[in-house]
Every structure is written in C-alpha cells, then in structure tokens.
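Help needed: design a sequence for this.
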C-alpha cells in the first residue's frame, strides 16, 4: 500500500497474498499464477489519495475473477478532501467545523468514502472482506495543502469508525483495518483493537506484536502481516506488497460470509 519502502528485495517465500494498485502496471496473471509461490488472495485498490480512482482497479478485478483468484478491494482513506468543500448544505447531515476553514467534518468524510466505494465496487465480482487503508497520508488536509495539525486524530478515529459501521451494514461483517504498526499504535488504538487488523511491519522477520514493538497494544492480534513492499513475483513488472496470515488466520477469516 503506501508505506515507506523496505531496503531489500524479498522473494515470495511464506507469502499468502498480495495487494496491488496501478503501481504494479500490466500484470500477467497466467505467469503469476504458474509460479511456485502464487498468491492465495489478492486485494486491489479502488481509490487512492484524495478519492482518486485507481485506473487499474476494474482491470485487476476482472482478471482475478477470470483466473479464479480470491479477490477483495481496499480503499485508501483521506480524512479531508477538496471535494467536501463542494457539498451543498442539504447534502449531508453534518456540522461545519470552523476550525478547518469550513470543511465539512467527520460524518461527511465517512459518508463520501462509503458512497464512492459503493459506486465503484461490484460485490458480485469479489468474495473477500473490504479493507480500509489508513496511514500517514490519510490525514492530509487538501484544503490547505499540508498535513493536518492535532487534534486530527480524534476526527480520524471518528470517521474511520463511522465508515467501518457503514461497511459492516453493507457486508454484514466488520471490514479489515490496514495500517502500519507505528501509525496504528499512535492514532488508531485502542478504538479498533477488536477489529480484524492488517498491519505493515518491515525490516524484520518478527511479526507485529506487542513484544516486537512496544507500545503496540497488548490485546491486538492482527490477522495479516504485510512484511514487505519490495516483493518480487513473476508476471508483475514492479515491486509488490506481500502479506501473510498470522495468529491463526486463514482464507476463511477474510472471506465474506454473508451473501450480498
């Protein structure tokens, strides 16, 4: 996803899945799936920073479906966006926070992301739980073209929680929350400790846990570990994020169990 690069190139040993975006370019799915370490699951990004559509998303979804690969969708969450400034007064039941130059706050941000997700994602073409990607750039203030100042973390938590509730109502299950270990510990814990978590932690062979990086919340048991963003896989002409199940998670953990 969008976290700082690993220093080394990583082979796909012990890899369970990958997550992809336009950065992976033209993927040869036949070559990728013929390899010794083909992914058990794939997540594709439907929108990136600032709600921008990922130009490869529909292509990746259709290709995965054609080749019978379990596929799911992740959205990159942007806390504030210029689009929010264009909303009419009657569009959302949300207050205006004058602290941030009239940008519509909290529930408006979550609702916009949810509506964009619903419009772009065809549930019938995928069978994995949706993922909310939350990290440093998620708190970028597009109205002022800079990172937001505190207390953006409380708005971020509120928005992510509302978005997660909307997705749960849509899918019948809680979405997966993705973040890197440092950002999660500082800005999202403990609100989402009991959610299914997908945590990025690089430059180590130790999976994310309280013992590996205090003060990571002791109660947290992530289901997926993104162990590199410099993976090399046949059929993909660019580095790719690689992920593995941890803490007893399996494919059944991330499958959508409620029919749409």
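Sure. Designed sequence:
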């Amino acid at each position: 996803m969008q976290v700082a690069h690993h220093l080394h190139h990583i082979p796909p040993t012990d890899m369970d899945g990958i997550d992809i975006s336009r950065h992976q370019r033209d993927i040869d799915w036949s070559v990728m799936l013929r390899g010794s370490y083909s992914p058990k699951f794939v997540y594709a990004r439907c929108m990136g920073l600032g709600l921008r559509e990922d130009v490869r998303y529909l292509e990746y979804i259709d290709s995965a479906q054609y080749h019978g690969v379990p596929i799911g969708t992740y959205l990159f969450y942007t806390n504030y966006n210029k689009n929010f400034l264009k909303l009419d007064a009657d569009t959302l039941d949300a207050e205006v926070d004058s602290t941030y130059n009239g940008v519509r706050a909290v529930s408006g941000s979550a609702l916009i992301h949810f509506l964009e997700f619903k419009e772009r994602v065809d549930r019938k073409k995928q069978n994995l739980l949706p993922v909310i990607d939350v990290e440093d750039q998620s708190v970028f203030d597009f109205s002022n073209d800079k990172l937001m100042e505190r207390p953006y973390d409380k708005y971020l938590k509120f928005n992510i929680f509302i978005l997660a509730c909307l997705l749960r109502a849509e899918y019948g299950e809680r979405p997966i929350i993705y973040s890197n270990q440092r950002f999660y510990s500082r800005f999202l814990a403990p609100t989402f400790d009991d959610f299914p978590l997908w945590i990025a932690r690089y430059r180590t062979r130790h999976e994310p846990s309280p013992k590996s990086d205090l003060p990571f919340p002791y109660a947290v048991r992530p289901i997926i570990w993104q162990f590199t963003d410099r993976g090399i896989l046949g059929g993909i002409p660019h580095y790719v994020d690689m992920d593995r199940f941890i803490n007893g998670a399996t494919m059944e953990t991330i499958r959508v169990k409620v029919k749409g």
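The first helix runs from residue 29 to 34.
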